[in-house]
């Protein structure tokens, strides 16, 4: 990628270099993107001949944030939800279990992940393929969610515009993605302390091809027809990747409470959380 997806400018500067792959910041609008040329519909994230899944991470560690989401956004007794890039189906399962009046449908590009969701997770409303090819009825969903999806998509405008059409008037689009300024600070600290090491994915330069800040993620939504961007700080994933330390989880929780306080005291202008949680409205 050699131009910004938000303003099409080719003027950029390198803000991080991950083992030879520059991560660039647009000099015009501030959007950050990887120089790595990823295919638009990458299917390899979940697949592999002998693929096994860390269920402690994908299931148990995610339960708190899923419960927080359901409590925060699914206040109505019934509704229709679509989860795009639903992976192994654990979020769809959480909605159906905790909100029995709601329907929940998941779409996932990986056939192998969907097989697990159907056969091991018992999710009969999780389907394989691109959601754009689903022929779902227009204006049929109250809320559409994308958990850790938007950063993987090189050119997200067509997807979000399509999802805009699937939402009912007044419906909500929910986007969750790493908070780039915080992730960059952490990556620079790791390099300063231990040096750049081969095989370490500091910012996932070949996977996270678009990296978002509060302003740029909201701008993406605006360009796709959405309004009223609102950020919240939800519970973190109760695990630390690469570590089984319970102390690390407690530190992560403490940091979450700290960032939530700062966010509130700054009237939602200072977001030091590791993750961005954004809702947008369809007018």
UniProtKB/TrEMBL annotation:
One of its GO terms (biological process) is methylation. Keywords: Methyltransferase, Transferase. The keyword Transferase applies. SUPFAM superfamilies: S-adenosyl-L-methionine-dependent methyltransferases. Transmembrane segments: none annotated. The keyword Transferase applies. InterPro entries: SAM-dependent_MTases_sf. This is Class I SAM-dependent methyltransferase. It holds the Pfam family Methyltransf_23. It comes from Leptospira kemamanensis. It comes from the Bacteria. GO terms for molecular function: methyltransferase activity.
């Amino acid at each position: 990628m050699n131009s910004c997806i938000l303003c099409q400018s080719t003027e950029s500067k390198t803000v991080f270099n991950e083992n030879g792959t520059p991560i660039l910041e647009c000099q015009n609008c501030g959007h950050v993107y990887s120089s790595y040329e990823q295919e638009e519909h990458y299917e390899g994230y979940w697949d592999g001949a002998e693929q096994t899944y860390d269920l402690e991470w994908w299931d148990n560690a995610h339960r708190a944030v899923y419960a927080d989401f359901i409590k925060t956004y699914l206040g109505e007794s019934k509704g229709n939800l679509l989860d795009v890039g639903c992976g192994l189906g654990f979020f769809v399962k959480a909605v159906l279990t905790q909100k029995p009046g709601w329907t929940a449908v998941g779409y996932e590009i990986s056939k192998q992940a969907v097989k697990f969701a159907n056969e091991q997770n018992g999710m009969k409303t999780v389907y394989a393929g691109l959601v754009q090819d689903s022929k779902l009825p227009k204006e049929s969903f109250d809320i559409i969610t994308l958990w850790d999806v938007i950063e993987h998509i090189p050119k997200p405008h067509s997807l979000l515009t399509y999802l805009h059409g699937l939402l009912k008037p007044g419906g909500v689009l929910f986007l969750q993605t790493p908070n780039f300024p915080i992730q960059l600070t952490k990556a620079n600290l790791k390099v300063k302390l231990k040096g750049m090491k081969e095989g370490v994915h500091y910012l996932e330069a070949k996977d996270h091809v678009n990296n978002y800040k509060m302003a740029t993620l909201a701008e993406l939504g605006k360009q796709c027809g959405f309004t009223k961007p609102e950020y919240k700080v939800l519970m973190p994933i109760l695990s630390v990747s690469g570590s089984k330390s319970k102390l690390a989880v407690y530190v992560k929780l403490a940091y979450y409470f700290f960032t939530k306080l700062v966010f509130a005291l700054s009237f939602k202008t200072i977001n030091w959380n590791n993750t961005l949680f954004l809702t947008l409205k369809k007018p």
